[in-house]
């Protein structure tokens, strides 16, 4: 079984981004970039399926600027066998990415696609579901456990108020939640090996996909700042403030 | 212009989140219809019909719709989609699961987690864990939207008198099957809608110690939350997690106990009206957003606070 894992290059999760003064966007020049944390979990899960001999090949794919190659190399250092980059400088929105991924799926014919549940930059939480819709495949989002048996996959999902188990017919789409696994650290020898693994580059034009954005961003602003708070000396003072000043209890 | 709101329910009870979505729908202006897709969910339809601002309730009743499987529910929404300018879901696990599937089939962009309606085609939504607010405009003929429930005050659950109409249910797609559900039991108010939330973090040290947080919550009639660190360490169940990847809350009072205040946690609670932090580290970032901070050992301060209330 072939597993396809889409990965995204995003601003590192530890970076607190700033909004540009002209309010056109956030400022990500000279900011540390990394693989989206949920995608790391997706690569890890695919690699584990490969190690259990459930998967025979793991292909990482990324859509975006040339530097996304680094993200794909990381995926290959974790365990992906090869990588595909759909290279474009265009601003990609989830629908466009889902269409690009559908074209890659049509080409590669995987049985399973594992994506992160959301990217920590646009916080959209859409691409996996959209890809499932475009392919007419079943989906299991927010997965915390995945079990492949024959031509079916059982997935435990994190939902509001607890957990839910679904049984899907392959081929299928899975999106990862945080608790699916703990991604391994990449080792230096594996980073070296990843440099030799094949990386194919395609373009949206070659795939015949129109990636023009559908949503126009009119403005990006700072969220309203909270007024500075006070430090209270003890519990009694805290209770007094909550009762008499804030009047919330 | 008409708007379709997808009701969130468990076949017996309409979830409160739907009332927040109705408030967002009201800001758009136009006829608001509610779709109740489920199995034997007539009671839910009755409740939806009483919500203020609803013009019509559509009921699709079939066993295949019982568990809100994305494939079947999306197909049901698509079967009704023509004629609607806006299709709204709550930004809950269920809404987030289905909405993008509907949008992709309609070949439109989906707008996630809106916190404000500027006009019928322009919306505000947080990006980068809430560190920036983007104003986006959609040129698509249909706007498929998920609504952040804490961004809109719920409409009244009673006072409306909408007509209830049965619609044909779609056939089971057969692509996926529901196996089981494990519901975390709780007598406390639901985290997402609670007026007071008390959350614990890594500072608690163990699941056993989490009891000091629970005791304070019970005294306040509050819901209990947790940081990701506390959940990952096994101190608290997953669905208590507050943050970018967990639940987004905006209660009247949020008490953070032993939580440092990472960006990802703040994303889930910084719109709370009053924030209280109890932490022994005066440098903890949580003090940057707290209205009232108490630099103290939580194992002394929390029980003391519980007693003082």
Automatic annotation (TrEMBL), chain A:
Span of domain Electron transfer flavoprotein alpha/beta-subunit N-terminal: 23-211
Cross-referenced InterPro entries: ET-Flavoprotein_bsu_CS, ETF_a/b_N, ETF_b, ETF_beta_N, Rossmann-like_a/b/a_fold
Gene3D superfamilies in the cross-refs: HUPs
Protein name per its UniProtKB record: Electron transfer flavoprotein subunit beta
Stated family: Belongs to the ETF beta-subunit/FixA family.
Domain of life: Bacteria
SMART domains to which the protein is assigned, alphabetical: ETF
Cited PROSITE patterns: ETF_BETA (PS01065)
Lineage of producing organism: Bacteria, Pseudomonadati, Pseudomonadota, Betaproteobacteria, Burkholderiales
Swiss-Prot/TrEMBL keywords: Electron transport, Transport
Automatic annotation (TrEMBL), chain B:
Listed CDD domains: ETF_alpha
UniProt entry keywords in alphabetical sequence: Electron transport, FAD, Flavoprotein, Transport
Entry-linked InterPro entries: DHS-like_NAD/FAD-binding_dom, ETF_a/b_N, ETF_a/FixB, ETF_alpha_N, ETF_asu_C, ETF_asu_C_CS, Rossmann-like_a/b/a_fold
Key word tRNA processing present: no
Domain of life of the organism encoding this protein: Bacteria
Electron transfer flavoprotein alpha/beta-subunit N-terminal domain mapped to chain residues: 3-182
Pfam name, any one: ETF
Family membership noted in the UniProt record: Belongs to the ETF alpha-subunit/FixB family.
Protein name listed in UniProt: Electron transfer flavoprotein subunit alpha/FixB family protein
Species assigned in the record: Mesopusillimonas faecipullorum
């Amino acid at each position: 079984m072939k597993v396809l894992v889409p990965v995204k290059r995003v601003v590192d999760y530890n970076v607190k981004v700033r909004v540009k003064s002209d309010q056109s966007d956030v400022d990500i020049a000279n900011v540390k970039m990394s693989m989206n944390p949920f995608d790391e979990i997706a690569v890890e899960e695919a690699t584990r399926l490969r190690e259990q001999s459930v998967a025979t090949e793991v292909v990482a794919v990324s859509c975006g600027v040339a530097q996304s190659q680094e993200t794909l190399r990381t995926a290959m250092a974790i365990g992906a066998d090869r990588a595909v980059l759909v290279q474009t400088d265009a601003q990609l929105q989830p629908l466009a990415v889902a269409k690009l991924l559908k074209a890659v799926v049509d080409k590669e014919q995987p049985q399973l696609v594992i994506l992160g549940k959301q990217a920590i930059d646009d916080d959209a939480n859409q691409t996996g579901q959209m890809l499932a819709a475009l392919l007419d495949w079943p989906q299991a989002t927010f997965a915390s456990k995945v079990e492949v048996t024959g031509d079916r996959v059982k997935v435990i999902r994190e939902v509001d108020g607890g957990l839910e188990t679904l049984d899907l017919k392959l081929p299928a789409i899975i999106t990862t939640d945080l608790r699916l696994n703990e991604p391994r650290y990449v080792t230096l020898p594996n980073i070296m090996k990843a440099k030799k693994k094949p990386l194919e580059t395609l373009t949206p034009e070659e795939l015949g996909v129109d990636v023009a954005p559908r949503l126009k961003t009119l403005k990006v602003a700072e969220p309203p700042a909270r007024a500075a708070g006070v430090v209270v000396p003890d519990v009694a003072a805290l209770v007094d403030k909550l009762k008499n000043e804030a009047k919330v209890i | 212009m008409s708007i379709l709101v997808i009701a969130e329910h468990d076949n017996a009870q309409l979830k409160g989140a739907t009332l927040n979505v109705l408030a967002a729908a009201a800001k758009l202006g136009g006829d608001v219809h509610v779709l109740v897709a489920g199995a034997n969910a007539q009671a839910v339809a009755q409740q939806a019909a009483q919500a203020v601002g609803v013009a019509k309730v559509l009921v699709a009743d079939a066993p295949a719709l019982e568990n809100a499987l994305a494939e079947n529910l999306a197909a049901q929404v698509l079967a009704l989609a023509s004629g609607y300018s806006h299709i709204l879901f709550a930004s809950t696990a269920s809404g987030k699961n289905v909405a993008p599937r509907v949008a992709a089939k309609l070949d439109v962009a989906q707008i996630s987690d809106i916190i404000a309606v500027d006009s019928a085609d322009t919306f505000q939504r947080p990006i980068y864990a809430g560190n920036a607010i983007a104003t986006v405009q959609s040129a698509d003929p249909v706007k498929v939207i998920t609504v952040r429930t804490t961004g809109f005050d719920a409409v009244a659950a009673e006072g409306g008198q909408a007509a209830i109409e049965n619609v044909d249910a779609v056939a089971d797609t057969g692509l996926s099957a529901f196996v089981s559900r494990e519901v975390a039991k709780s007598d406390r108010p639901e985290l997402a809608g609670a007026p007071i939330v008390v959350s614990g973090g890594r500072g608690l040290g163990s699941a056993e110690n989490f009891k000091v947080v629970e005791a304070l919550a019970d005294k306040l009639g509050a819901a209990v939350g947790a940081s990701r660190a506390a959940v990952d360490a096994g101190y608290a169940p997953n669905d208590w997690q507050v943050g970018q990847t967990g639940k987004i809350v905006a209660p009247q009072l949020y008490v953070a106990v032993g939580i440092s205040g990472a960006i990802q946690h703040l994303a889930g609670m910084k719109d709370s009206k009053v924030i209280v932090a109890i932490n022994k580290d005066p440098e903890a970032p949580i003090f940057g957003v707290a209205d009232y901070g108490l630099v103290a050992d939580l194992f002394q301060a929390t029980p003391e606070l519980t007693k003082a209330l």
